[in-house]
Specification:
Strand order of the largest sheet: 1-2-3-4-5
Low-confidence stretches: none
Shape: globular
Number of strands: 20
Radius of gyration: 24 Å
Strand content: 25-35%
Largest sheet: 5 strands, mixed, barrel
CATH superfamily of the largest domain: FAD/NAD(P)-binding domain
CATH topology of the largest domain: FAD/NAD(P)-binding domain
Bound molecules: flavin-adenine dinucleotide
Oligomer: single chain
CATH architecture of the largest domain: 3-Layer(bba) Sandwich
């Protein structure tokens, strides 16, 4: 083997945690190289969070234009130009990429564009996108490999269909006539509603009995009502059997439901049935990095892999699949390398699904509490009781809080309603500070804001004993 170029820290994959680690370590004077096969800055700014939220915002505008008369605004018959939707998204992504390149330049970390593969412990061969190879080894090595859309084993799928994933869906410059969305989780729901608002016919096919199956039934049922009210067809408890045709032309999905088999005929098929880690075929196990049964890198709570001097970050390490969690993985590794003792145990992880209304949750759901046998007090408030919603004619949804029975500790907060992600952050801050729910109940929030609803939500907490 030729002599490898040696760096202090080598990062494989330019995802959220990896890039921040690289910038931080390079700024501290280390020699750092980041190997990335395609996406400068990882999937969040290129193919996932930010571009999807960009297009979802276009869909919101389309919806407002369609409903303009409700607000007393006269418009002509609106129409959506998907090429222009894509152009706005692409311009944003290009801007984000140049921001990243500036950060690399300023920090001194080297960005090497190419696909990396282990050839020995802590040694990677890079097949450069520009041609040729480079061999690099690092005293420390950080894996930030991410995931890709899972392609399910479904007869007919790979051979002919060429289905869309989030990557291709965000690059469409045309409107699918009838988009079949396989998967009723967060990713599928965001795309389904956005494309409906752009003007497509939509059918969501979900194998579970509810949409957003990780959430409580009241959440899934409320989202179902929203979707049906917008004319989105939803097929629940559906087991996909086979698929025929070609996405972008004609595609047929055969499913089995409790009511019998049926065929759904559409023009396009979007897969949103989960994620698969980008860990296969790059020599990880030979380099001493063990994988679990699902292909995720085996790590301890400090994100150390089974190979000495090798860490894993973000989705490939099995951390919760959010950018803010990958960023916290970076902070854990950074702080531990500086002598700290942080772990990823007991993190309070919030999330937001950017449907309209959005869904946000932090802490426990009722289902979570039930699974661990925890008695809780539950407070609810319909969004129509939050007067801000009346001013914008968006009264759908609810807030829900879980409170301990033995104390006034807030255990969880769920909101389906306008600005849910922002309101949740208020509750999260209270949870982090250990503030009892009465602190929010008795606070003076600005009127009329969505956060003002927290006063009335927490006033609804049943006193005393558990439900
Ligand atoms: C459609 C969609 C929308 C989402 N929206 C949100 C959201 O709103 N909010 C949120 O918090 N999360 C969202 N997520 C999840 C979020 O995108 C990820 O959790 C986040 O980007 C963290 O990813 P990561 O750092 O683990 O990996 P990534 O950002 O995916 O980085 C991994 C990188 O490694 C590279 N790579 C892999 N293998 C190799 C190799 N062998 N050689 C070289 N490079 C390699 C990849 O090209 C990639 O750039 C969304 C996900 C999807 C699919």
């Amino acid at each position: 083997m030729p002599q490898a170029e040696r760096v202090d820290s080598l990062v494989l994959g330019c995802g959220e945690g990896g890039k921040y680690l690289a910038w931080d370590m390079a700024q501290a004077g280390q020699r750092v190289a980041v190997v990335e096969r395609q996406l400068i800055g990882g999937s969040c700014p290129n193919t996932n969070c930010l571009p999807s939220k960009n297009e979802i915002w276009s869909a919101k505008v389309a919806d407002l234009v369609r409903r303009a008369a409700t607000f007393g605004v006269e418009t002509g018959p609106g129409s959506v130009d998907m090429a222009a939707v894509r152009r706005r998204k692409r311009e944003m992504v290009e801007g984000l990429i140049s921001m990243h390149l500036d950060r690399f330049k300023a920090s001194g970390a080297e960005l090497i564009m190419g696909a990396g593969q282990f050839v020995a412990a802590k040694t990677i061969e890079v097949r450069l996108n520009a041609g040729g190879t480079r061999l690099l080894s690092g005293d420390r090595l950080f894996l930030d490999l991410g995931t890709q859309a899972t392609i399910p084993e479904l007869p007919g799928l790979v051979t002919a269909t060429q289905p869309l994933t989030n990557v291709e869906a965000l690059e469409l410059d045309r409107l699918p006539e009838h988009l079949i969305v396989l998967g009723g989780g967060y990713v599928g729901l965001e795309f389904a509603q956005a494309y409906r608002r752009f003007g497509s016919r939509i059918t969501v096919v979900e194998h579970g009995p509810r949409l957003a199956g990780r959430e409580d039934p009241d959440v899934g049922d409320a989202i179902l009502d929203v979707f049906r009210s917008e004319g989105i067809a939803v097929v629940l408890a559906a087991e996909p059997l086979r698929v025929e045709g070609r996405s972008g032309e004609r595609v047929s999905l055969r499913v089995r439901t409790p009511q019998g088999e049926q065929t759904i005929d559409g023009s396009d098929l979007l897969l949103a049935v989960g994620r698969t880690p980008n860990t296969a075929g790059i020599g990880l196990e030979a380099a001493g990095v063990a994988l679990d049964a699902r292909g995720y890198v085996t790590v301890n709570d400090r994100l150390e892999t089974t190979a000495p001097g090798v860490w894993a970050i973000g989705e490939c390490a099995g951390s919760a699949q959010f950018t803010h969690v990958a960023y916290d993985d970076f902070r854990i590794i950074r702080d531990n390398l500086a002598g700290g003792n942080r772990t990823r145990r007991d993190r309070l992880i919030p999330f937001c699904m950017f449907t309209d209304p959005p869904l946000a949750r932090v802490g426990l759901s009722e289902g979570d509490a039930g699974r661990v046998g925890l008695a809780v007090r539950v407070a609810r408030l319909p969004m129509s009781a939050v007067l801000r919603t009346r001013t914008i004619s968006e009264t759908t949804g609810f807030m829900k809080a879980l409170i301990a029975t033995e104390s006034d500790r807030i255990l969880g907060f769920t909101m389906l309603g306008p600005e849910a992600g922002e309101v949740m952050a208020v509750v999260q801050a209270a949870m982090l500070a250990g503030m009892p729910h009465t602190g929010l109940r008795d606070a003076i929030f600005t009127h009329p804001t969505m956060a003002e609803g927290l006063v009335f939500l927490f006033a609804n907490v049943p006193s005393g004993a558990a439900r």
